[in-house]
Amino acid sequence: MFVLVEMKDTVRIQPWLFKLDPNEAIINELNKKFANKVVHNVGLCIALWDIQKMEESFIFPGDGAHHTIVQFRYVVFRPFVDEILLGKIKSCSKEGVCVSMGFFDDILIPADSMQDPTRFDENEQLWAWEYQMEDGKHDLFMDIGEEIRFRVVDNTFVDTTPVGPENVSKDSDVTEHEVKKSPYTITASTSEPGLGLLSWWNS
User: Which of 15, 20, 66, 146 is packed most tightly, with the most Cβ within 10 A?
Assistant: First the structure.
């Protein structure tokens, strides 16, 4: 679920931070820049693990800040495909079930990746597994806030870097849709025994 990723960046320290220990100032700046941010094709950055190498600092003409090239390792959330995780149901729609892990919310279980047969109840606005018993079918609803066990199917990254006016589409609807995209989404599945709501298997 969590991995150590080697990264390299140029850290800029403002003059009023020179009074701090250089290492402390660089650590603060790295965490300010990366903590709780998604790095494209890397994952969600959680916290700095360690600094492996710091090169000599330099100052540009007309800029009082000093710049240091730093090699470091960061703790990143990026579960591997087929990993089993736990979360809580955040919302339901016809597209599927959205799951949150507290610190990460962009997890989707598509409609075709749930137990079979599962249906979307329009009145309850919830998904329900039609569980077959001796006396007939029973609806096991996937209620909001319930704990759910799921398998990771795919990690999807979208480059959300702002584009210049010359690259913006003339179709405003498409542009607004692109802006709302999440930079990192996990696609998951519950279509096998033992997966789904914990209450299904613990009762």
Answer: 66
Domain annotation for the chain: domains and CATH numbers: 2-77 (3.30.1490.120), 84-202 (2.40.50.140)
Tell me the backbone φ, ψ of residue 192, rounded to 5 degrees: -160, 160
Q: From CA 132, how far away is CA 152, in angstroms rounded?
A: 26
Token pair for 199: 């209450």
pLDDT, tens digit, for every residue of 34-69? 999 999 999 999 999 999 999 888 888 888 888 999
190 token code pair: 């519950």
Which positions ≥6 away from 119 have C-beta within 8 Å? 127, 128, 130
Cα separation, 14 vs 66, in Å, equals: 7
Output the pTM of the full model.
Answer: 0.82
Q: Distance between CA atoms of 12 and 167, rounded to whole angstroms?
A: 30
